[in-house]
Design a protein that fits this description.
The complex is a heterodimer of chains A (153) and B (498). Chain A has four helices and two strands. By secondary structure, chain A is mostly helical. Chain A folds into two domains: 58 residues; 67 residues, no CATH class. Chain B has one domain. Chain B has a two-stranded antiparallel ribbon. Classes of the chains: A mainly alpha (153), B mainly alpha (498). Chain A: This is Tripartite tricarboxylate transporter TctB family protein.
Chain lengths: 153, 498
C-alpha cells in the first residue's frame, strides 16, 4: 500500500463533528429553563457555550474547507492511528471477557507486534512480564478490585 | 513567611516525602528526556495511582514531575538535537552546536546550574509573593472570583500561540462539558441525554488521561519520529562541570532568565516555552556578539534553560494563591489538588498551610536533587531514552487504562478516556490546543457558581461586575488581552506590507 495522502483533513473532520455536537447541545440546552429567580437558569450557560462552540467550529470548518487539501499525513500512517484506537477498544472490550490480566498481556503483545518492532520472543516475554507486573501492582499492592472477566468470575 | 517555610522544610525531612520528591524529580527529568510524553501526560498518568494517598506525598511527586521536566528536556536537546519538551526547543539552537564542538558537557552543566539558580530565584519570589496575593484574594467575593476566571480563560486562549478561534473552540467545549451533570442549584440533569453515568459530570481524570496521556501515544504512532540512533555518548562529570570563565560569561544570563521566566510564568497562557524563547531573544539582543547565537553561544543555553525553570515556579503563584491554572500542566495539577481534597486558592495558606509550605519547601529540595541528577546521571538518562523508545508507548497506554479504572473501579471511565483520546488526537492533528479545554473543565463549575451567586447578590443585575473596582479592573484587563492578538496581527500585517 502506498503512503499517499489521506483524503480527510483532520481539521475538517474535527470541526464538522464539533458543529454537529454543538448543534445537538443547543437543542438539549433549549429543553432546560434559561432563567430563574434573579439569576440564570440551568440551561442558560450551556446555551451560551453551545452557541460559542457552534460559531467557533463553523469558523474553523469554513476556513479549512476554503483552504482545502490534505493535512499531509500519509494514508499508511493514518491507518496506524486507526489501528491503535481499535487496539485500545479491543483491550477494553476484552476486559469484560478475560479480565485485566489477560487483556493487558494480549494488548501489549499486539501493540508491540504492530508498532514496536520487537522480536517475537522478546515481545512475548515483555508482554507477559509487564502485564503480570502491572496486574500484581494494582491488584495486590494497591488492592484495586480489578475485573476478573466473565470467563474467570 | 520564614516560620511556615521552615515548618515546611521540617515536614520535608520525612523520609517518604524525600523519596517522593526524588522519584518525582527523577520521573520529571525522564519525561523531559523522552519525546512524546509531556509533564501533563505524566501527571495525568500518575493521578489515578496516587488517588487516596496523603495529599502532600502525591503533590510533591507531581510538582517534581512538572519542574523536573524542564531540566530533563535539555539533555536530549543538547546531545541529540531532539527536544523532549517544547520549552527545550530553543535550547537546540545553541546547545547542539556546542555538543558538535565537543562542549556538550559544558552546555548541560551550565543548563543545570542555570536551572538551579533560576529555579531558586523563582521559588524565593514565589515564597514572597504568594502570601500577599492570597491575602488580597481573600477579600474576593463571587463577582471578583468570576472576573478572575474570565481573565484566566481569556489569557489562556488569547496569549497562547496559534489560532485564537481554535483556542476559543477548545475553551467553549471545555466550558460546555463542565456543565454536564446535575445542576447544583435546580437539581436538574443537564446535557446527560438520559445517561445515568453522566449525572455526576464528566470525570476529570479520564478526560486528562485521554487528552494528554493516550492521545500523545496515538499522535506519535501516526507521526513517527526517526528513531534516535544509539550514539556513543560518554560524558565524564569533569566535562559537565563548567569552568569559572564559563560561569562568569553566563551568570548574568541565568539571573536575567530567572526573573524573566518567573514573571512570564505567572501569566496564564505564557508559560515556560514563551519564557525560553523571550529569554533567547533578550540574550541575543543585548549580546555584543549576536552572530555567535545559533553557532554555540553559552548564553543561548544558559538564559532559556534558566527562564523555563523559573517559569515553572512562577506558574505556582496563581495556582496556589488564586487557584487559577495558567497552562495545561498546572490545570492538571489543580485537578490533582481538588481530587486529593485540597482546594487551591486564597484559603490554601490558612486552611492547608502545611501542604502549601511543604510543597514549596519540597521544590527547594527538589531543585537541589535535580542539580545533582542532571550532573551525575546524564549518561543514564541517555541510556534510558534509547532503550525505552520501543516499549514506552505500550507501558504508558496500559498504565493509563488500568490507572483510570482504579480510581472508581469503573469501566465507564475507561470508555470516556478513549473518547477523550480520540478527541485529543483530533485536536492535536488540527492544531487546536487542549489547554483551554482542561482549564475550562477545572474552573468552569466554579465560574458558573460565581456568576449565578453574583447575580443573586445583585438581584439579577449584571452591573454588579462593573460596580466593584477589583472585578472591573480584572474585566478590563481581560478585554485588553482579548484585543491583544488582533492588535498584534494588525501590526504584523502592517510591518509585512511595509
Amino acid at each position: 500500500m502506498g503512503n499517499k495522502a489521506f483524503p480527510l483533513n483532520a481539521e475538517i473532520v474535527v470541526s464538522a463533528f464539533m458543529v454537529a455536537f454543538a448543534a445537538a447541545q443547543v437543542y438539549a440546552a433549549n429543553q432546560l429553563s434559561l432563567s430563574a429567580d434573579y439569576t440564570l437558569g440551568p440551561g442558560a450557560l450551556p446555551m451560551i457555550y453551545s452557541i460559542g462552540l457552534l460559531i467557533c467550529s463553523a469558523a474553523v470548518l469554513f476556513d479549512s474547507v476554503r483552504q482545502g487539501g490534505s493535512d499531509g499525513v500519509g494514508e499508511k500512517n493514518s491507518m496506524r492511528g486507526v489501528l491503535c484506537i481499535l487496539l485500545l477498544v479491543l483491550f477494553v472490550a476484552s476486559i469484560y471477557v478475560v479480565g485485566f490480566l489477560f487483556s493487558t498481556i494480549l494488548f501489549c503483545f499486539l501493540f508491540c507486534q504492530f508498532f514496536s518492532g520487537l522480536g517475537l520472543v522478546k515481545n512475548i516475554a515483555f508482554s507477559v512480564i509487564w502485564g503480570a507486573a502491572l496486574y500484581a501492582a494494582f491488584h495486590y499492592l494497591l488492592e484495586v478490585p480489578l475485573e476478573p472477566g466473565l470467563l474467570f468470575s | 513567611m520564614l516560620t511556615p517555610l521552615i515548618d515546611g522544610f521540617a515536614r520535608m525531612m520525612d523520609p517518604w516525602l524525600l523519596l517522593m520528591c526524588f522519584l518525582g524529580t527523577f520521573a520529571g527529568t525522564l519525561v523531559g528526556v523522552l519525546p512524546g510524553l509531556g509533564p501533563s501526560a505524566a501527571i495525568a498518568v500518575l493521578l489515578p495511582i496516587t488517588y487516596g494517598v496523603d495529599p502532600l506525598i502525591a503533590l510533591v511527586a507531581m510538582a517534581g514531575i512538572y519542574y523536573g521536566a524542564m531540566y530533563g528536556g535539555t539533555i536530549t536537546s543538547v546531545l541529540l538535537n531532539v527536544p523532549g519538551e517544547s520549552a527545550s526547543v530553543v535550547t537546540t539552537y545553541d546547545g547542539h552546536p556546542l555538543a558538535k564542538q565537543g562542549k556538550g558537557g559544558v552546555a548541560l552543566g551550565l543548563a543545570a546550574i542555570g536551572s538551579f539558580i533560576a529555579g531558586t530565584i523563582g521559588l524565593i519570589l514565589l515564597s514572597v509573593l504568594a502570601i500577599p496575593l492570597a491575602r488580597m484574594a481573600l477579600v474576593f467575593g463571587p463577582p471578583e472570583y468570576f472576573a478572575v476566571t474570565i481573565l484566566a480563560f481569556v489569557m489562556v486562549s488569547s496569549l497562547a500561540r496559534g489560532n485564537m478561534v481554535k483556542s476559543f473552540l477548545s475553551l467553549f467545549l471545555g466550558l460546555l462539558l463542565a456543565t454536564v451533570g446535575q445542576d447544583i442549584i435546580s437539581g436538574q440533569a443537564r446535557l446527560t441525554w438520559g445517561t445515568m453515568e453522566l449525572i455526576d459530570g464528566i470525570g476529570f481524570i479520564p478526560a486528562v488521561v485521554g487528552l494528554f496521556g493516550l492521545s500523545e501515544i496515538v499522535y506519535d504512532i501516526v507521526h513517527p519520529q526517526p528513531e534516535a540512533k544509539q550514539q556513543n555518548i560518554k560524558l565524564k562529570i569533569r566535562e559537565i562541570l563548567p569552568s569559572m570563565a564559563d560561569l562568569k560569561q553566563t551568570w548574568a544570563a541565568m539571573v536575567r532568565g530567572g526573573f524573566l521566566g518567573f514573571f512570564l510564568g505567572i501569566l496564564p497562557g505564557a508559560g515556560a516555552t514563551i519564557a525560553s524563547f523571550v529569554s533567547y531573544g533578550v540574550e541575543k539582543q543585548i549580546s555584543k556578539t549576536p552572530e555567535r547565537f545559533g553557532q554555540g553561544a553559552l548564553e543561548g543555553v544558559a538564559g532559556p534553560e534558566s527562564a523555563n525553570n523559573a517559569a515553572s515556579s512562577g506558574a505556582f503563584v496563581p495556582l496556589l494563591a488564586l487557584g487559577i491554572p495558567g497552562s495545561a500542566t498546572t490545570a492538571v495539577l489543580i485537578g490533582a489538588f481538588i481530587i486529593l481534597g485540597i482546594q487551591p486558592g486564597p484559603r490554601l495558606f490558612t486552611e492547608h498551610a502545611d501542604v502549601a509550605w511543604g510543597l514549596i519547601a519540597s521544590m527547594y529540595v527538589g531543585n537541589l536533587m535535580l542539580l545533582a541528577q542532571n550532573i551525575l546521571l546524564v549518561p543514564f538518562f541517555i541510556w534510558l531514552f534509547v532503550i525505552s523508545e520501543r516499549t514506552l508507548p505500550v507501558i504508558v497506554a496500559s498504565l493509563c487504562v488500568i490507572g483510570v479504572y482504579s480510581v472508581d473501579n469503573s469501566m465507564w471511565d475507561i470508555w470516556l478516556m478513549i473518547a477523550f483520546t480520540v478527541l485529543g488526537y483530533g485536536f492535536r492533528a488540527s492544531g487546536i490546543p487542549a489547554a483551554p479545554l482542561v482549564i475550562a473543565l477545572v474552573l468552569g463549575p466554579d465560574a458558573e457558581n460565581a456568576l449565578r451567586q453574583s447575580l443573586v447578590i445583585s438581584m439579577g443585575s449584571p452591573t454588579v461586575f462593573f460596580e466593584r473596582p477589583i472585578s472591573l479592573a480584572l474585566l478590563v484587563v481581560a478585554f485588553l488581552c482579548l484585543l491583544y492578538p488582533l492588535v498584534r496581527h494588525r501590526f504584523k500585517s502592517v510591518i509585512e506590507t511595509e
